Amino acid sequence: MMSLIICPGIHEPKLTESFLAGLQLNNSQNPPDILIFPTQDYPAYSSGHILQFLRQNHPLSSPILVISFSAGVVGAIAAVWGWQLLGGKVTAFIALDGWGVPLAGNFPIHRISHDYFTHWSSALLGSGEDNFYAAPSVEHLELWRQPQTVSGWWIHSQNHTEQKTPTTAAQFLTMLLDRYKT
Questions:
Q1: Average pLDDT of 31-45?
Q2: Which segments cross the bilayer (predicted)?
Q3: How far is it, in rounded angstroms, from Cα 51 to Cα 110?
């Protein structure tokens, strides 16, 4: 079974609890197995600590889907490359406000941004597949605190043309989780 790995940023753990509540994952028929990297014990940006956490808490034979936020994006992208080098499978990687972090891998990558500028400028460093940005823009932490209240645009391609569909950050994330069947 695939697990959902949450790599928060540098903030109070209550914000991550609020983020997960906003996704309403426990209301689904098959709630995912969720592992939250303990940023209260280790630096959010530490790929070595994230990889060690994965090795200690998740079987290498079971795939992972990673949702990371802010400084957690820095550590998480390098950790998943390490996870793959060890033989692990990464189903997808979702970066929320990973501004300035180059993203690349042989797995689906999605960016979620708190405003258009972050969306546009981050895309220069690898945008992956379907993405989302808030419109109107919201504060950085608001994206993590209450994704269900953040309205914006789902950016996707159809017939080689960029399409924009209105949605919320939580709905976009739920769509991705359903796609990858966590």
A1: 93
A2: 64-83
A3: 20
Residue span of the structural domain in which 96 resides: 3-180
Number of H helices, E strands in the chain: 6, 8
Above 70 in pLDDT, residue 130? yes
Distances (CA, A) of 17 to 14, 20, 49, 106: 5, 5, 21, 30
Q: How confident is the model at residue 34 (pLDDT cuts 50, 70, 90)?
A: very high
Dist. CA 73–CA 111, nearest whole Å: 10
Q: Which residues pair with 6 in a beta bridge?
A: 36, 67
Given CA atoms 138, 140, 143, 149 in this order, what sign does their dihedral have? negative
Q: Which one-letter amino acid corresponds to residue 24? A: Q
Torsion sign across C-alpha atoms 53, 59, 61, 62: negative
Nearest by Cα to 23 from 176, 182, 132, 173: 173
47 in Cβ contact with 75 (< 8 Å):
yes
| CATH number of 168's domain | 3.40.50.1820
pLDDT of residue 150: 97
